[in-house]
TrEMBL record:
A Pfam family annotated for this UniProt entry: DUF463
InterPro entries recorded: YcjX-like
Protein name, per record: YcjX-like protein
Length: 470
């Protein structure tokens, strides 16, 4: 196992040297990782980003688009033959149909290459002519990102943390009842193991549906081809000494197998090669779910930052330490569910969550930022008469029944600590406000030539993530 680890490190080092030495003689490549937590909208983000980079009429805050430096953008075959292609055309067709629909969420890793022909500025740019910059977008489930934190934990440490986290979450009693009827010191019985794993998976599914962010291990929710395999047939257990052939000893072995055969290959083959990263976060959904969900999001953001190797892709750094992520953006999605007068509050809350996460993760090196966005705008803003005066609302088509409705979610506090303090204090609900969330369907679009789908600050997010490379 040690030899295998050393070999992996040597291989990554050789790949880093090769990339570094060949970079001056090849087109520059940006590998952008896109992930999200609990229905944050990864698929829609990627689809809208690509559409708006190909038709840049709505991208004024992306300087290379506003100045005309981007001459054209086009899709090319992706460089990784073993990864599924992100189904951009199919998703765009769903979002731009006469009766548009939301595409299905991310269930596996996929990739898409968008090539941009860019005219460099300055005298040397005029002499050299346009160059091509490749943007490789890697889409993967957020649950997989949270799994990286398990690499540093033993089965006992993970079990203690998982059992502490379960308390008070949806489905906790049902799982604890199943666990309480089992003696982990008994000889392994596969049916008992499967029942425990099934009950634990049901709890994770209920917690995710209720708005909680950390629902790891991630493959329990998105098993794919691993469904029913021993590597996904374990659950947290109370502390104890478990003998050979016991259920407890087997769960310890399977947890280590999960780290070795599921988490490490993802880190080695995909995650460690990312240059820039955006983490989409449904902050509004967590606020609606209550203080426990906000506190869980706060902890999840710290775990996410801890998973990254911060630093700049300097020449010597890339030779001796491999590629390091340079920029990480935490984007609060669904900003179109709020009137623009509340966007500053949403951004401030996200920034406060990120600031605490950076402190708790002892994180430094990469450039991080937070902002509120909507990759696809689904609402229009209105001001309506109310018993207390004028009320700023958003109007859109409801997902459940297709009817138009005006919506006011409640007033977000101007001081983020009014939300973070009750969350950290373990409160069950907000004392002075009831925050609501409405599920809107995508609006029917009539796009002008040269315009991509309407959005909120997608261009600003793109400027932060890739603007310096264009």
């Amino acid at each position: 196992m040690v030899i295998s680890t050393i070999a992996d490190q040597i291989l990554r080092g050789v790949e880093g040297v090769t990339d570094t030495l060949s970079a001056p003689f090849s087109d520059p490549v940006i590998r952008l990782g896109v992930t999200g937590l609990s229905r944050a909208g990864k698929t829609v983000f990627i689809t809208s980003l690509v559409a708006n980079l190909m038709n840049r009429g709505r991208m004024p805050q992306l300087r290379a688009a506003a100045s005309g430096a981007i001459q054209t953008a086009y899709l090319q075959p992706q460089p990784d033959d073993t990864l599924p292609r992100f189904s951009y055309e199919a998703y765009l067709a769903q979002l731009t149909a006469q009766t548009p629909e939301w595409p299905d969420g991310t269930r596996h890793i996929s990739e898409l290459r968008l090539s941009l022909k860019v005219q460099p500025s300055g005298i040397f740019g005029a002499l050299s002519g346009p160059r091509t910059v490749h943007l490789d977008i890697v889409d993967y489930p957020g649950e997989w990102l949270l799994d990286l934190g398990l690499l540093d934990l033993s089965f006992e440490q993970w079990s203690a943390a998982a059992l502490a986290r379960i308390a008070g979450r949806p489905g906790d009693a049902a799982f604890m009842d199943v666990l309480g009827a089992v003696d982990p010191a008994d000889t392994l019985d596969e049916v008992t193991a499967q029942n425990l794993a099934s009950a634990f998976t049901s709890h994770l599914q209920a917690a995710r549906a209720a708005g909680f962010s950390d629902c790891s291990p991630g493959r329990f929710l998105l098993p794919g081809d691993l469904a029913g395999s021993p590597v996904l047939t374990f659950a947290p257990l109370p502390p104890g000494t478990y003998g050979r052939k016991s259920l407890g000893r087997e769960f310890q072995r399977r947890f280590e197998s999960y780290k070795r055969n599921v988490i490490k290959p993802f880190f080695r083959d995909h995650f460690s090669r990312i240059d820039r990263q955006i983490v989409l976060v449904d902050v509004l959904g967590a606020i609606h779910a209550g203080p426990p969900a906000v506190d869980d999001l706060r902890n999840a953001m710290a775990d996410i930052l801890g998973a990254f190797k911060p630093g700049r892709n300097a020449f010597l750094t890339r030779i001796f330490q491999g590629r390091r992520v340079e920029k990480i953006l935490f984007a609060a999605t669904k900003a179109d569910h709020l009137h623009h007068t509340q966007h500053n509050q949403l951004t401030a809350i996200t920034e406060a969550l990120l600031r605490e996460a950076k402190d708790r993760a002892d994180f430094a090196g990469a450039q991080t930022a937070a902002m509120s966005i909507a990759a696809l705008r689904t609402t229009v803003e209105e001001t309506v008469d109310h018993v207390d005066g004028k009320l700023n609302v958003v109007r859109g088509r409801l997902l459940d029944n297709g009817k138009q409705a005006a919506f006011y979610p409640g007033a977000l506090p101007t001081d983020p600590q009014h939300l973070l303090a009750p969350a950290k204090a373990g409160k069950d609900k907000w004392l002075d406000q009831d925050y609501q969330v409405m599920r809107f369907a995508p609006a029917a679009l009539t796009l002008k030539p040269g315009d991509g789908p309407p959005h909120i600050r997608l261009d600003k997010a793109a400027e932060f993530l890739i603007g310096d490379k264009l």
